[in-house]
Amino acid sequence: MVFENFSKDMQKLIKEKGFLEPTLAQKISAKHIIGNRNVLLIAPTGLGKTESALLPIIDKIHQEKSKPISVLYITPMRSLNRNLLDRLFWWCDKLDLEISVRHGDTTQAERAMQRENPSDIMITTPETLNGILPGKRMREHLKNVKYVVIDEIHELIGSKRGVQLSIVLERLAEIAGDFQRIALSATVGEPEKVAKFLGKNVKILRAEAAKNYKISVELPRPDASSLQLSEKLFLGEETTARLMKIKELIDSHRSVITFTNTRQTAEVLSSRFKTFSKGIEVHHGSLSKESRVKAEKDFKDEKLKALIATSSLELGIDIGSIDYVIQYLSPRQVSRLIQRIGRGGHKVGETSEGVIITGDEDSFESSVIGRKAMGKELEDIKVHDGALDVMSTQIIGMCLDEYGIGSEKVYNMIKKAYPYRNLTKKQFLDVLRFLGMLKMVWIEPDNKEGEFILKRSKKGWQYFYDNLSMIPDTRQKKIVSIVEGEPIGSLDETFIAEHGEPGKSFVCNGRAWRVIQVDEKKVLVEPIDNIESAIPAWEGELIPVPYSVAKEVGELRRTIKEGRKLEYPIDKNTEEEMRKIIEKQGKSHIIPDDKIFLLENYKDFIILHSCSGTLINSTIGRYVAAKISEDTGVAVNIKTDPYRIIFQTLAKGEKVIETIMKAEDLKETLEKDLERSSMFKYRFINVAKRFGIISRKARFDRLGMNKIITQYYGSPAYEETLRELFLEKMDVEGAERVLQEIKEDKIKIITEKGLSHLGENGLIQQFSEVMKPRRPEREIFDAFKNRLMHTRLRLVCTNCADYALSREVKDIEERPHCPKCKSSLIGITSVYKKEPLKVLKNNKKKLPLKKEEEKDLNEIRRSSDLMVTYGNKYAMTQAGRGVGTETAARILAKLPDNEDKLLKLIFNAEKEFAKNRIYWK
Questions:
Q1: Do residues 646 and 640 make contact, with C-beta atoms less than 8 angstroms apart?
Q2: Is the pLDDT score of 628 beyond 90?
Q3: CA nearest 616: which of 725, 736, 724?
Q4: Which helix (H) or strand (E) holds 101?
Q5: Alpha helices of 589-633 — where are they, by DSSP H?
Q6: pLDDT digits 0-9 by tens, 69-106
Q7: End-to-end CA distance of the chain
Q8: I need a labelling partner for 424 at 20 to 30 A (CA). Which of 9, 137, 173, 233 fits?
Q9: Is residue 238 within 8 Å of 359, Cβ to Cβ?
């Protein structure tokens, strides 16, 4: 039996903890870990990976009396650190071992204690290990490391954080020797690649068979109750129906997590839930540490019934009470769904159960991902091979580790890391010279031919510690509608820098908006009609849908078209919805699938239906647009999704087909096109920060982006930006394969006139409301009026100075009177103003008033006069933001004879105030 391999002390603790039988993960890993073998342990969430890895190691360091720090446990998220400390403290305390956590939130006092009295086991993040490695005292302690455990390695391997860690581990090995490497991973598509990433001679162990999943796809239909609630929540009927279904599922289970793909969606769902349900909180990375920790603890203690979360709760936090997981709309990737559904049934032997709540065209993708997840068909992993910005920070890190280090030693250390296995000497030297030019490192010739001695500079030291993290700094500002006065979304500062001037328009949240003003915290906007001329807002990094998923969506369309039985984990509504969509499409056009692409026109849009996934469609779309512009001089805008490429151009559909049939030199054409794109600018700025070209704190609106890019044309920073874009945003190889299949007639392109149902869906999704009726002016002013009427103001009697009341505008009488003195001299002020009665009373007592108080007195008296003259129309004007007493008087003097005219005047006054306030002191 596995437990017999442990010491008597550990066996006693295992028995005390109640572990009667080892898990599958423990059975297959214990002898290899005890035998000092490098191990990659693959097991779904809830099969005890952490204990499988750490119990043998804890037992070994207990028996060997190893010097601290002997074990590093590296996790990708701070929340995992907190969770692990709670789980492992019991074992360490019983065996008289010290365990600590070190990350960005660790206090200075704790850090000092760790320097003086290091723990046996340190739980940390890749960034923190990178930061403490050069420290003189910590470096001495890290020389004792014998075991490194990397948790959730699948989360790191596909990002620059993982690339950074791969070199950091080689830097650690330089001082600690050949330590044992153990990685823990959820089910992954390419275990062999993960094993190579970890190191040499890695044994792959799989404990996947023991985990069962039960996944369904459900589409809620609106009914009378959801219609009524939708009006209250200001949401569409379909969204409200989904919300009600989620509430029903939460109520019928013990503990539920609902996952969304974006923070904005999580916030919207959470805010709407709070209006009619309790015990539900939101959890995402933008919240404060205190808010996240409280939400996690309350959820674990079952004080909360449910959490609405993004990927912030995707990883291995052990919240054992979860018995159900909801995914709100398609998770876009199979691996994400498996990871998320795995949050439920977190105990050994339990089935992880969950549902994708879908709607409309999303039902196809959700059905495919649900089936693939049940069959454990995961995506391949992409690694950032040869990332030059990561290498730059690590070169400086090595110069801090060892002053006067040889360039050959640095090169060889980097080459040991898997992402740099193909690094050439020329690439390395180019980056080295670039760092020298930036004065990050001093380069001196060595006695050996072609070698150099590298020494850190003061600037390099600052650069290294400013760039411990590879996670890009993304500052965002809320978009606030002047109509409702509420946030409708957010914009990245890079988008604002290029498109954020007052008067510019963009698309967000299903509407077109015009910028009124941008200040430190928000972008104030108003709704407009001309959506076709608006720029689709860049909304961050959407998860790409893989080719394999999109292709199967095409196959599923054909299955429905041919009337065959569907073998998918879907409910009746989902099947009916998909059949209805195919039926609608078939009435006017052919049904595009994996073997037939449809080309159609509407106004100046050309829509190519291509079930090829996010990256391939983006690649083909950019290539075709670039070629048409080059050949004809006609401008071409493109927007793509996993199932369509949409061109907005005066060129004809025949030109699109001709360009596809002649397609070649994709990489060269795309390079030229990307260099001119906004996407390149966004990425270049983040890469430039990681190279130290510009400060991490630099504000985009104060940067001359074009000038900086021109200055560094052809540099390693420029090359790295292109490499990153081709890896994350393009699939040249996949696009070439699809284009070749079109040329060989394995995929047919059929052109049909008019706009199909699926084409209309594409325009609604990508260019928002091109196809929908404009938002009527009546609706806009109803929303604006609703905001004014629910604004709270303070009523004050200027006669007796003994009556004040806070009230919403809608509740203010036409001609209010003071209940104490019966006077109609009722003034109105903002509820945020200092107590106005004090000024009135002091004036009544003939007490001297300060200059500011005199001003307040005159204003409140003026407002009472206006209230007598105009009644609650004046109250409505005072609810307008920035509409002062004199502005209100000017508005009312125009004698608007109906409410709509009055609302328009208040609306315009608010706009003027918003435009001009930035110039006020």
A1: yes
A2: yes
A3: 736
A4: strand 99-102
A5: 614-632
A6: 999 999 887 656 566 777 788 888 888 899 888 876 77
A7: 77
A8: 173
A9: yes
